[in-house]
Amino acid sequence: MEIFEDLVIESNRSIRETMVVVDQNGRGICFVLDNGILVGIATDGDLRRALLRGLTLDNPVSDAMNRNFTALPVTSEDKLIRQTFSTRLKIIPLTDESGKLVDIADVQRSHRIPVLEPQLAGRELEYVTDCILTNWISSQGSYVQKFEFMFEKMHPEMHAVCVSNGTVALHLALLALGIGEGDEVIVPDLTFAASINAVLYCKATPVLCEIDPNTWCIDVLEIKKLITSRTKAVMPVHLYGQICEMEALRQVCEESKLFLIEDCAEALGSSWNKKIAGTFGDSSTFSFFGNKTISTGEGGMVLFRDPEAAKQARILRDHGMSPGKRYWHECIGFNYRLTNLQAAIGVAQMERFPEILSKKLEIAERYNALLAGVPGISRLPFTQPNTVHSNWLYTVTLVPNISRDELMRRLLMHGIDTRPVFYPLHEMPPYVNFKRSDKLLNSKEISICGLSLPSSVTLQAEEISYIATSLVQELSNC
Ligand SMILES: Cc1ncc(COP(=O)(O)O)c(C=O)c1O
Q: For the sheet containing 419-420, what is the strand order?
């Protein structure tokens, strides 16, 4: 699959031929190459000015192109790429060390194939416009209730409270269940830092638990070894969309009278024996950050089984203000509210959720078929019986002698962005001293050799094939 054939031309081709390319790609620009090396850029304007200067349509484009152009190394941080865009510069060529054109960033995508991008293909714009036209842009407004209602419908027996992000959802879950100083909360060693930070915000003590080598979720047998008289809750994280062993987890929590708080930030729609993630425990949390399965830009949701806990979370979300007495504060609360504008996007995303989930499953199936048995890949995502793994991020592990970072760099040269697995919490400075499982070998191993591939619902079948082919090719070079 040629990646930008409609945007490039060789430097010895004529101005006429270049005009045809620019006309057909509709972008008003063309990148001029000399054996793959980017030597110039020709815009509509450059070509017009060249003709006005007296050049003819038969002159080579190298006479007309602009040699003083902006390009960035393909390995540049996304932030630098984003900052380089301006009202005049909406497309940026990305080159390798030799100056070869390997990718093109535009205002919507920093790489041709990003790891994850939202798909706002439903009624998002219509609903946001409605908020603006009706003047309900703050956290009051009908979309906030609608969004919560949709979550309640999808997660039976749970009461939904939408909040400003997935981290504060965890914070409110812990606070509303009364967890605080002196309490221990067991968290997996392999997760995003928000899981442990939320415990620390409550002044409770996190305890780091080993993960299962297959599911990469918290190891239930290890949890049992960590329970003490101070343990108050277990916080499993359904990592990358893989659902934890929920029956066994529920049993452990029931036996030891512990709260079960599911971190579903990465697992909207995953299920275990047809029971959906987020409905197993006392509380569950979700994130709607830009890269999540559904997105509101920033946003989150916390669900509670106990309606009283949900009521308390609403009070805490709204500065601790009494629901029946305005400006009377019953406790020290927070402003953790979601805006109506964000909820409007959430409602539109939820309307399309069945389609989004089935696309996620289809992407995983395609990757599974293309990558099974490929040398260099030690494991594809594990399939547990009777579960739905929503595959927020399709993540594989590499055999130990492959340099993952070198592989990621090489894939960037194909315009493919990838992502390493999280670092184990116990290795990072703020968390080194917390109590933990005797051994944390699985979290360490997965962290070193795990690689997440592009998983956006916008991916086309040909792109998945292109990613798989590029991966296979580069695996043999690393
Ligand atoms: C497992 C997990 N928990 C919590 C969060 C926090 O969500 P947010 O970024 O919306 O605060 C994330 C987000 O990436 C996550 O992956």
A: 377-379, 394-398, 450-453, 419-420
Rounded CA-CA distance 2/303 in Å is: 46
Q: What is d(CA 404, CA 315) in angstroms, rounded to the nearest whole number?
A: 46
- 355-408, pLDDT tens digit by residue? 999 999 999 999 999 999 999 999 999 989 999 999 999 999 999 999 999 999
**Cβ pair 437, 210 in contact under 8 A:** yes
Domains present along the chain, CATH in parentheses: 5-106 (3.10.580.10), 124-351 (3.40.640.10), 354-475 (3.90.1150.10)
> Which of 162, 167, 185, 393 is the best mutation target for the ligand 1 pocket, counting ligand atoms within 8 Å of the beta carbon and taking the most?
167
Q: Which of 266, 267, 261, 265 is nearest to 249 (CA)?
A: 261
Atom 7 of ligand 1, nearest CA residue: 166
Query: Among 168, 174, 289, which is best to mutate for testing ligand 1, by the most ligand atoms less than 8 A from CB?
Result: 289
* Residue 421 alpha carbon to ligand 1 centre in Å: 14
Q: Out of 87-91, 124-128, 157-161, 239-243, which region has the weakest mean confidence (pLDDT)? A: 87-91
pLDDT in tens, 441-450: 999 999 999 9
Ligand 1, atom nearest to 167 Cα: 11
Full-model pTM? 0.92
For 141-150, which contacts have Cβ atoms below 8 Å and span 24 or more sequence positions?
Answer: 141/340, 141/343, 142/340, 143/340, 143/341, 143/343, 143/344, 143/346, 143/347, 144/338, 144/340, 144/343, 146/343, 146/347, 147/301, 147/338, 147/343, 147/346, 147/347, 147/350, 148/301, 150/346, 150/347, 150/350
